[in-house]
């Protein structure tokens, strides 16, 4: 018998002894019967259903579907946001982005027309699949690192992997951290304020999603490891958006209400943090304003150049503060809808490919890969050109010494192996019922 059942049975027996006493005051006021019925009903429900408050059940099939939704969702958000990355600062994009744009689209829009960000449709068609960018390729390194060293990989080991595989196509906090590694520093010193002038930038949020899917439903563990990863590049409140999204990703394996996800994430952020203040504001503004553009304006006006008392936050178009709050806004106003959430995340502007990738990956976890419209996965042009999302192909041209071509399904399967290990390592179980495999996860949801 579980400790929970033993305790509840004890409560019932003690209560029964209490109400048989003529001296019991609750009996005299007629309160006891109602309480007893509640307790009995509560205990019968849990006993008959074999339910544990700390355990969630998910099929292996559904788990794989959600992990696939995470990776494919990130790719969609990345490529949708790419043409508009850092193009719209003071104001959002004047339309809601609902498809892939490129260099020769609407001349009235500000688009990155002179580099690969404006040519994603052509490039993906030519290479016959998705290509790497920092929204996914540092997680690609983390995957290889955890496969080599395990879930308890330490800072010296991850530094070795960064120095071996991450040498170019990195920016701001990632770039500074990598340069510090070449000087002999290891995390968390590579992310500390004393050494990394970019400690507050968005980097940590967009490169640590993979830790969140290693720990489905295990929020505290997800937060612990994502914070560990965040401190490779970031410090202080610059790690707080990473923590918030960690909570939401981990919980989204079992929770589909975006309001609940955001409320849950808020509980993990220090109350002294600007991001805590910002999340509270966005939650309130979402309730007040039907139009997300009004809330976007309020976020930008207060948090792009944030001040509180004598403190002034560093200002940057890639700050984790303003960008992270735009993501919270997109999640709330998107209401769990993949296209709406991703569209708002892109249209909000600033470093919008990163926000869109994170938000789209979250909704992918929530609903699984099947919720992502095929028009966004079977080709980046008007007509579908593949039979599987992104032709089941991930082409790496940015991370040295790692495979150039990997099947997306193989990436998902490899993440599954690590996730299963994390589940079992943290007291979960793998069972078979009616010919189907399930995981019982010791969850803190």
Entry keywords:
445 residues; mainly alpha; ADP-ribosylglycohydrolase fold; three-stranded antiparallel β-sheet; three-stranded mixed β-sheet; 8 strands; 53% helix; 7% strand; globular; disordered N terminus
Broad structural category: mainly alpha
> Strand-residue fraction?
5-15%
Give the C-level CATH assignment of the largest domain. Answer: Mainly Alpha
Q: How is the biggest beta sheet arranged? A: 3 strands, antiparallel
Query: What strand order characterises the main sheet?
Result: 1-8-7
Parts with pLDDT < 50 across at least 5 consecutive residues: 1-53
The overall average pLDDT, rounded, is: 90
Concise account of the structure shown:
With 445 residues, this protein is mostly helical. Helices cover 53% and strands 7% of the residues.
Could you please describe the fold and organization of this structure?
Helix 1 (3-19) runs antiparallel to helix 3, helix 16 (320-334) crosses helix 18 and helix 17 (338-347) runs antiparallel to helix 18. The chain is mostly helical. The strands form 3 sheets. It has a 3-stranded antiparallel beta sheet. Strands 2-5-6 form a 3-stranded mixed beta sheet. It has a two-stranded antiparallel sheet with strand order 3-4. The radius of gyration is 24 Å and the shape is globular. Helix content is 53%, strand content 7%. The protein folds into 2 domains: 1-53; 58-421, ADP-ribosylation/Crystallin J1 (ADP-ribosylglycohydrolase fold, Orthogonal Bundle).
Helix-strand blueprint:
Layout: H1 3-19, H2 25-28, H3 32-49, E1 55-59, H4 60-81, H5 120-127, E2 130-131, H6 137-149, H7 155-165, H8 172-182, H9 203-207, H10 209-214, H11 219-230, H12 240-252, H13 258-266, H14 274-288, H15 292-303, E3 307-308, E4 311-312, H16 320-334, H17 338-347, H18 352-367, E5 393-395, E6 405-407, H19 408-425, E7 429-433, E8 436-442
């Amino acid at each position: 018998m579980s400790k929970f059942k033993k305790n509840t049975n004890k409560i019932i027996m003690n209560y029964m002894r209490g109400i048989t006493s003529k001296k019991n005051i609750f009996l005299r006021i007629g309160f006891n019967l109602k309480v007893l019925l509640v307790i009995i009903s509560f205990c019968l429900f849990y006993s008959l259903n074999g339910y544990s408050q700390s355990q969630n059940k998910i099929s292996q099939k559904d788990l794989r579907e959600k992990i696939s939704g995470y990776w494919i969702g990130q790719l969609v958000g990345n490529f949708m946001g790419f043409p508009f990355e850092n193009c719209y600062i003071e104001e959002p994009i004047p339309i809601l982005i609902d498809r892939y744009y490129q260099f020769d689209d609407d001349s009235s829009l500000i688009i990155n027309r002179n580099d690969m960000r404006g040519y994603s449709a052509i490039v993906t068609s030519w290479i016959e699949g998705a290509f790497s960018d920092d929204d996914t390729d540092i997680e690609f390194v983390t995957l290889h690192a955890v496969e080599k060293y395990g879930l308890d990989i330490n800072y010296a080991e991850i530094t070795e992997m960064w120095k071996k595989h991450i040498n170019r196509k990195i920016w701001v906090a990632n770039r500074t951290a990598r340069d510090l590694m070449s000087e002999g520093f290891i995390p968390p010193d590579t992310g500390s304020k004393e050494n990394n002038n970019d400690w507050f930038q968005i980097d940590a949020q967009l490169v640590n999603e993979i830790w969140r899917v290693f720990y489905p439903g295990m929020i505290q563990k997800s937060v612990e490891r994502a914070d560990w990863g965040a401190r490779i590049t970031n410090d202080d409140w610059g790690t707080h958006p990473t923590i918030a999204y960690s909570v939401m990703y981990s919980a989204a394996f079992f929770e589909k209400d975006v309001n609940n996800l955001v409320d849950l994430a808020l509980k993990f952020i220090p109350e002294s943090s600007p991001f805590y203040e910002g999340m509270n504001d966005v939650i309130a503004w979402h309730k007040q304003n039907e139009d997300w553009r009004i809330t976007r304006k309020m976020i930008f006006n207060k948090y792009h150049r944030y001040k509180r008392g004598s403190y002034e936050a560093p200002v940057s178009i890639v700050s984790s503060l303003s960008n992270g709050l735009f993501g919270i806004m997109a999640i709330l106003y998107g209401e769990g809808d993949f296209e709406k959430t991703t569209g708002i995340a892109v249209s909000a502007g600033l470093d919008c490919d990163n926000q869109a990738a994170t938000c789209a990956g979250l909704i992918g976890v929530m609903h699984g890969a099947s919720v992502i419209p095929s028009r966004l996965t079977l080709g980046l042009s008007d007509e579908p050109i593949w039979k599987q999302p992104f032709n089941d192909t991930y082409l790496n041209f940015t991370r040295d010494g790692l495979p150039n071509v990997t099947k997306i399904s193989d990436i998902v399967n490899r993440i599954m192996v690590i996730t299963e290990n994390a589940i079992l390592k943290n007291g979960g179980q793998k069972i078979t019922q009616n010919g189907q495999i399930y995981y019982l996860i010791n969850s803190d949801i």
